[in-house]
Each structure stands twice: as structure tokens, then as C-alpha cells.
Amino acid sequence: MFVSARSFEEYRAMFALSDRDLSVRVLDCPGGAAGFVAAAGERGVDAVAVDPQYGPGRERLGAMALRENEHKHAHLVEHARDYVWTWFEDPGQYTRLRSESARAFARDIAARPERYVEGSLPHLPFPDRSFDLVLSSHLLFSYGERLDEDFHRNALLELVRVSRGQVRLYPLFLHTGFRRYPALEAMREMLAGYGVSSRVERVDYAFAPGDEEMLVLECAERRPLPERGPAPGPAGRNHDPVRWRHLDPEP
Ligand SMILES: C[S@@+](CC[C@H](N)C(=O)[O-])C[C@H]1O[C@@H](n2cnc3c(N)ncnc32)[C@H](O)[C@@H]1O
């Protein structure tokens, strides 16, 4: 099962988070094995993560992320010139930071399990407007070749539903193609129809060339959202198009 472990510092950079941004209730969706909630908790930030993999077997996620890091390290050493080494210095530092994050995540999910909630887009297990700030990294847009436009539409509306302030999303690029998610503008127009204004902002973080922008959605003034269909059954809940990536042949 593929699970990544970005660090609190990466989240700060990817989402241009100020101390003020972190003085509110924050949701990380999907959390994966990221170290964000762990480090946020140490700083007194009220942060929660949600991911389909936080059910039974969650105690194995940290170790899975460490294995994923080893696999990725070999790939990065071989393909270093395809990436931008401004935020990260080199593949060694990349792997060290990601591994520290995976370990911080593993300690925190054991110590504070209530901070890690099992759930899947597009049906999150939270009431409307539960969080001031919702962060979403490396699922929407990124996996745009595996997750269709209907999924993106419903998932974006769901992230908006649980936010009373903002949703921030990074990256805007497909992870397969080093190019922007093609339906980004259509998604922004769809959201504008519900009173959700959006803007693309440059951030001080890049790993894929040109991938230096986040999308910010302003949810406070949103209009009523469409009625949601029933939550999927167990098979639907377990469907995870991001799984097994490290077993796929390299593109
Ligand atoms: C590439 S990881 C990103 C994790 C984290 N944000 C990070 O940057 O390290 C993608 C995550 O998406 C989760 N995922 C897959 N399908 C999902 C869905 N329908 N709803 C929410 N999360 C999902 C996977 O379990 C996986 O942990």
C-alpha cells in the first residue's frame, strides 16, 4: 500500500502556512504517514488527519512509509536531474527528512490515535464546517489520471463542506506528467457556482519543475452545497486508487 510521509516543514512550505494560519482547527486530508499532525500537536496546534488507511493495520503505516522511502530514494538517485533541488538539497536529505516524518507519525498515531480518523473522500466523517483550515496534499489533481473528474468535483465539494474558512490544495500538477491538472479551471468554475472563490498562489516549495503553486478556496461565504448521495459500502470505502504505486512499473 502506498503511503507517503511529508514533514511539517514541507506542509508549511507547500501551503504557505504562517503561525497565524496554525492558530485554528486544522484538518489534513489525506494524512497518509505525514508528520504534520504529530509536529503540529507538539506546537499546540489543534490538528486532525483523515485517511482511508487509518483503520485496522494503521500501526504498520509508518513502516510502510519507510519502505516507500527506500524505493523512492533509489528512484531519485537515478533520476535526480528530473527534479528541482531548491527546497530539498539532494536525495539523501530528502530521504532523511521523509524518514524522520514517518517515525514521528508512527509515534504520534500510537500515542494520540484520536487525532487520526479513518475516512475517505468524497464522504468525510465530520459535520459541516468542522475545521477552520483544511489542507489537502498529493491526492486531488496529483492523481488526476486515476481519479476522474466526478471524483474531483465531489471531493472538492466535500472538503469545502467540512471547512468554515479555507481549503488549501497542493500540488496542482499531475504526479505522472510534470504538467497542471487539465480540469483545474473547470473545477474552479464549478466551485464559484457555490459561492466558493478561489485563487492560485505561488509558494516557496517545488519538487517537480514548475510545480510551485497551491489552490486556495474561500469557504466562509459559500452557498448550500448539493445533497450528498449515500456513503459507499465497505468495498467503495476501501477502494484506494493510490495503493500499490510502488509496485507499479515506473512510467
Ligand atoms: C501520496 S499520499 C499523501 C499523504 C500526505 N498528504 C503526504 O503528503 O505525505 C496519498 C494518500 O491518499 C490516501 N487516499 C487514497 N484515496 C483516498 C480517498 N478517497 N480519500 C482520502 N484519502 C485517500 C491514501 O491512503 C494515501 O495515504
Average per-residue pLDDT, rounded, comes to 91
Quaternary state of the chains = single chain
Topology order in helix (H) and strand (E) letters = HEHEHHEEHEHEEH
Counting DSSP H or I runs of 4 or more residues, the number of helices is: 7
Strand content: 15-25%
Helix residue percentage: 25-40%
By CATH, the architecture is named: 3-Layer(aba) Sandwich
Ligand list? S-adenosylmethionine
Q: How does this model look, in words?
A:
With 251 residues, this protein is of the alpha/beta class. It is built from seven helices and seven strands. The protein has one domain: Rossmann fold, CATH 3.40.50. It is 32% helix and 15% strand. A seven-stranded mixed beta sheet has the order 3-2-1-4-5-7-6, with helices on both faces. Strand 1 (26-28), helix 2 and strand 2 form a beta-alpha-beta unit. Helix 2 (36-42) crosses helix 4. It binds S-adenosylmethionine. S-adenosylmethionine binds next to loops.
Which key terms come to mind for this protein?
single chain; 251 residues; 7-stranded mixed beta sheet; 15% strand; binds S-adenosylmethionine
Short description:
The chain has helices at residues 8-14, 36-42, 61-78, 91-111, 149-161, 184-192, 234-238, and strands at 26-28, 47-51, 116-118, 131-137, 163-170, 197-202, 213-218. The chain is an alpha/beta fold.
Strand and helix layout:
Elements: H1 8-14, E1 26-28, H2 36-42, E2 47-51, H3 61-78, H4 91-111, E3 116-118, E4 131-137, H5 149-161, E5 163-170, H6 184-192, E6 197-202, E7 213-218, H7 234-238
Parallel strand pairs: 1-2, 1-4, 2-3, 4-5
Antiparallel strand pairs: 5-7, 6-7
Helix pairs in contact: 2-4, 3-4
The structure holds S-adenosylmethionine.
